[in-house]
Amino acid sequence: MSAIVRSRLAATKKSRRGSEEHPWARRALIASAMVFLFVILVVPLVNVFFQALETGVMPYLRALGDANTVTAIAMTGMTALSSVALNLAFGLTASWCIAKFQFKGKALLLTLIDLPFSVSPVVAGLLYVVLFGRQGFFGPWLDAHDIHIIFALPGMILATLFVTFPFVARELIPLLESEGTEQEQAAMSLGATGWQTYWRVTLPSVKWGLLYGVMLCNARAMGEFGAVYVVSSNIAGKTETVPLRIFNLDLGLGGHVAAFAVATLLAFLALVTLALKTWLEHRQNQDLILASALPKHEH
Amino acid sequence: MKIGYVGAFRSPWFGLLLGTVLSLSVQAKRIELLNVSYDPTREFYLEFNKAFATYWKDKTGDDVVVNQSHGGSGKQARAILDGLSADVATLGLAYDVNILAEKGKLLSADWQKRLPDNSAPYTSAIVLLVRKGNPKGIKDFDDLARPNVSVITPNPKTSGGARWNFLAAWGFALKKWGGDAHKAQEFVTAIYKNTPVLDTGARGATITFVERGVGDVLISWENEALEVLHGKEKDQFQLVVPSTTILAEPPVAWLDKNTKSHGTEVVAKAYLEFLYTVKGQEIIAGNFYRPRNPEVATKFSGQFAPTQFFTVDELFGGWNKAHKTFFAEGGVFDDVLRNGR
């Protein structure tokens, strides 16, 4: 379920059971959760920076300024940008269809959208190799027309697209469903065209959820390793994304510090994502408060 | 239409990145080669590619950029079959190039005769790397089968080095027990019982042993072990050269089908031939591979310990046969792994 809907539910429901447990039990539970999070999340994250700066600031900066690392950043930017843009277009269309209309095959479409959640990224990558590789289904035709998909940028975008497929749509469907169709019907009855209704009524009502989905999609796209590893040729300065760069640097003898230096980029990405997420949830809640202050129409 | 990495290369992102580089060399032709290689050659080919670029620039005035791709030898061969457009393949063992010829029809079946020394410009030994002071007292392959020893070696299904390691131990056992294959299998099974991890490539295994601190002994390419012993962690390890071991001969080949479509036939061939020049052989020896050139070998003889060698042809009837017997689906290695777990 969408995190925003979840937080909305939590906000409206309030916890009615919170005070029933013994205060010590509650404290012990909270403390154990904190210790667990600290050991599993905080320590490794801080350690990334610690390892990266092990030999000082200059080696760190040199590792980040390396031409192949810069190319890897550009490659990550390109794959993330393309897959987010395509997922945005797909996610908006699919979620709108699913939330606002009844049609045959709706359940199937929903299942298909969820598929990447249950398929291992490595399998996703291999599927594309089997389809587009030289020995694959479309291989001979692609080879004859000199089109490179596997071991090139298009394959890497496809693989990223596959693993990030559900993020935008899954975020929007529950939101759009909870909105219902009354507002759209009102707009239509006042003479708005379908397009106007979508742009001025439907889309604004889910804008924070949409941004949230895009942000998660982007974070996943930039961090994806397994699927991209299978379909990339792993060539430094050509087909390396940031996660692949980290992997390959780590495999170089003595490449440990450089690998962690590049890893700090992904750690920063995680922190920025976290900050944006908090801000988005804050904005969403403000909108909710604003909306609940307005008189609600009866029907 | 041509998309793919050529397309990516022409996209604005790369245009920005490489524009300055290209503007400096507008007249000279810029040639790109892709060398798809196995795992431990990362550092060696980095140095060799620079030397070749200088040599080719002096000779023809053209700029040549050699891109490198590394991974387990078997995995790399599979990638080439799946369409990774390599100009040259410099893999861990001849079988992996043989399948490029047989299955992929990327080069002629007699590729090994096109260059000197069976197209293997450098060789290496399979040796043992142990922790400082040799706490487990490992002196030879026998000691790896002892129950309290933890052995690091990669997975023969994906790694070329791992297949050499396997055959080195097998060959050692054959020599020790007078050619008894049953005894050899028992011995090798005992070794694999001692392996806590099987990495996909030799380099992964080295990192597991050296940087992650797992295991008592690493079965390794000699070049890889010597590189560790000349690196910053050199004081923490020591070399154990087995009494008898396999002579590993990693082959090189240009792939006719790919070079023809890239128009790189001449430069790809020259690139591999440069490996046999004195300059090339010195870079080879400087990166701890055993050179073929006798003078260079004499010059660097101090860094290679003497040992008894056997070859895959002598003991196993060549790579195609060895692969079929040991590493193919349902081969001896599958049994070893099943019984060793």
Give the SSE map:
The complex is a heterodimer of chains A (299) and B (341).
Chain A: H1 3-13, H2 23-52, H3 57-65, H4 67-100, H5 106-118, H6 121-132, H7 139-144, H8 153-164, H9 166-179, H10 182-189, H11 194-205, H12 207-223, H13 226-231, H14 242-251, H15 256-293
Helix pairs in contact in A: 2-15, 3-15, 4-8, 4-9, 4-12, 6-8, 8-12, 9-12, 10-11, 12-15, 14-15
Chain B: H1 5-10, H2 12-23, E1 30-37, H3 42-60, E2 63-70, H4 73-81, E3 88-90, H5 94-102, H6 116-119, E4 122-131, E5 151-152, H7 160-176, H8 181-193, H9 202-210, E6 217-221, H10 222-229, E7 237-240, E8 244-248, E9 252-254, H11 256-262, H12 265-274, H13 278-286, E10 290-291, H14 294-299, E11 308-310, H15 312-316, H16 319-327, H17 332-340
Parallel strand pairs in B: 1-2, 1-3, 5-6, 8-11
Antiparallel strand pairs in B: 3-9, 4-6, 4-7, 4-8, 4-10
Quick structural summary:
The complex is a heterodimer of chains A (299) and B (341). Chain A is an all-alpha fold. Chain A is built from 15 helices and no strands.
Please describe what this structure looks like.
The complex is a heterodimer of chains A (299) and B (341). Chain A has 299 residues and is an all-alpha fold. Chain A folds into 2 domains: 23-52; 57-125 and 152-292, MetI-like (MetI-like fold), CATH 1.10.3720. Chain A has 15 helices and no strands. The longest helix of chain A is centred in the C-terminal third of the chain and has 38 residues, at 256-293. The radius of gyration of chain A is 23 Å and the shape is globular. The mean pLDDT of chain A is 87. Chain B is α/β, with parallel strands linked by helices. In chain B, the strands form 2 sheets. In chain B, strands 4, 5, 6, 7, 8, 10 and 11 form a 7-stranded mixed β-sheet that branches. In chain B, α3 (42-60) packs antiparallel against α13 (278-286), α4 (73-81) packs parallel to α5 (94-102) and α7 packs across α8. Chain B has helices at residues 5-10, 12-23, 42-60, 73-81, 94-102, 116-119, 160-176, 181-193, 202-210, 222-229, 256-262, 265-274, 278-286, 294-299, 312-316, 319-327, 332-340; strands at residues 30-37, 63-70, 88-90, 122-131, 151-152, 217-221, 237-240, 244-248, 252-254, 290-291, 308-310. Chain B is 47% helix and 16% strand. Chain B has 2 domains: 25-120 and 249-276, Periplasmic binding protein-like II (D-Maltodextrin-Binding Protein, domain 2, 3-Layer(aba) Sandwich), CATH 3.40.190.10; 124-248 and 307-340, 3-Layer(aba) Sandwich (D-Maltodextrin-Binding Protein, domain 2). The interface between A and B is large, with 39 and 42 residues.
